[in-house]
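Regression test case RT-17, inverse folding.

Input:
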């Protein structure tokens, strides 16, 4: 009875298309990587019962994906095995055509991807360095650095040392202290899981950002725009209509990887390294790298604690659910932005806001996340206040920088006066 109360049906509307049965079952049974996340503990119906928010997110996202496929393929019904085979054939032809065009224009498309991401995110030229590659075919992505499974659970001593408030020796016989350390570890993992879903959701928009450079792509080949739409919409649909068991198995074996990203923070400024099989995938990976750099502020300050959290949450199989649900979670986040953040002179503040949100303590983080997902005025007010604080801090920073330059100018002026004085020249 309790389970039935907490479950809600997937809303397919009047569409005949359905998710793979095991995907729907996991969502309704609260068995996804986000099911137990505190951000999704929301009273959907306002009846005082905390129910899964995933059904609502999944219903919206699946409908969007199906509509995109129909828009670009012209098919009116993509349900059933015959439609699935037809989609596979359409996808295969699109891949062949796209690569025949891209292979002759790789360097141009690589530079175009960088320029597009910098412009869309209002990134200063000196914010990052970029190392991008449009690869020629499947199997060219190095998956050796990707986690196909979570790291082994750290032992008690490591958890207490990284997340405890006392020395390990003092905590050994203190059950309460140990449980507090475990709770902190679990909350940091849940926070990282939600940030990862936001990162995937934000970068997923890169699949269709090619429309912003339609003139440039049309000059290469007028077919590209529709080919990219066909390619990316079907690829998105496969995450929903292919059984989760198969998708997770492939991810666990590092198969079918179309792109990769890495942030090298040893360089100054940091370098975003991105590889993609197609131009839209390359944009996705570039965006993901930038948001990863911004969202890293949400990790624990202690490097060992941060590595333990990432080792537990940053895996390819977990990424599958982030790709499914992350886009609509990101939409909810952006919908709570103050309208002024979409003006050209303030768009850069969006990047600061994402970092500031990621830096909140776990308790504050999940409180704000729930308000954002519910779309409340309170959530919008909190983000608006954060934006005010960011703008004020940037204003103070600019003032301090200006005063610093002024003081430096005064020092240079004095040195110049002394130099002239040594020559017997007076400067009034």
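Golden output:
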């Amino acid at each position: 009875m309790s389970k039935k109360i907490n479950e809600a049906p997937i809303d397919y509307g009047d569409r005949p298309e359905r998710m793979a049965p095991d995907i729907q079952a996991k969502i309704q049974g609260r068995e996804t990587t986000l099911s137990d996340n505190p951000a999704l503990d929301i009273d959907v119906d306002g009846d005082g019962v905390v129910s899964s928010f995933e059904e609502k997110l999944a219903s919206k996202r699946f409908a969007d994906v199906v509509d995109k496929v129909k828009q670009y393929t012209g098919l009116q019904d993509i349900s059933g095995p015959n439609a699935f085979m037809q989609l596979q054939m359409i996808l295969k032809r699109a891949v062949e055509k796209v690569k025949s065009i891209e292979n002759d224009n790789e360097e141009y498309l690589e530079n175009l991807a960088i320029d597009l991401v910098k412009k869309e995110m209002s990134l200063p030229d000196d914010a990052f360095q970029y190392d991008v590659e449009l690869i020629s075919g499947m199997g060219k992505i190095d998956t050796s650095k990707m986690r196909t499974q979570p790291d082994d659970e750290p032992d008690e001593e490591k958890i207490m040392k990284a997340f405890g408030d006392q020395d390990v020796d003092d905590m050994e016989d203190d059950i309460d202290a140990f449980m507090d350390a475990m709770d902190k570890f679990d909350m940091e993992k849940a926070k990282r899981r939600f940030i990862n879903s936001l990162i995937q959701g934000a970068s997923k928009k890169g699949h269709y950002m090619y429309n912003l450079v339609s003139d440039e792509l049309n000059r290469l080949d007028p077919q590209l725009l529709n080919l990219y739409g066909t390619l990316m919409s079907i690829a998105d649909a496969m995450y929903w209509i292919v059984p989760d068991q198969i998708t997770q198995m492939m991810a666990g074996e590092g198969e079918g990887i179309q792109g990769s990203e890495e942030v090298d923070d040893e360089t100054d400024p940091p370098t975003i390294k991105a590889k993609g099989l197609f131009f839209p995938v390359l944009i996705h990976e570039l965006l993901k790298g930038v948001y990863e750099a911004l969202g890293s502020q949400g990790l624990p300050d202690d490097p060992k604690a941060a590595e333990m959290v990432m080792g537990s949450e940053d895996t390819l199989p977990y990424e599958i659910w982030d790709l499914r649900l992350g886009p609509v979670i990101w939409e909810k986040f952006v919908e709570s932005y103050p309208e002024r953040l979409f003006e050209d002179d303030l768009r850069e503040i969006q990047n600061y806001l994402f970092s500031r949100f990621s830096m909140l303590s776990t308790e504050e983080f999940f409180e704000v996340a729930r308000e954002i997902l519910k779309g409340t005025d309170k959530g919008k007010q909190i983000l608006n206040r954060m934006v005010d604080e960011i703008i004020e801090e940037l204003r103070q920073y600019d003032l301090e920088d200006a005063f610093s330059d002024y003081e430096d100018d005064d020092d240079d002026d004095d040195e110049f006066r002394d130099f002239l004085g040594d020559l017997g020249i007076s400067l009034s």
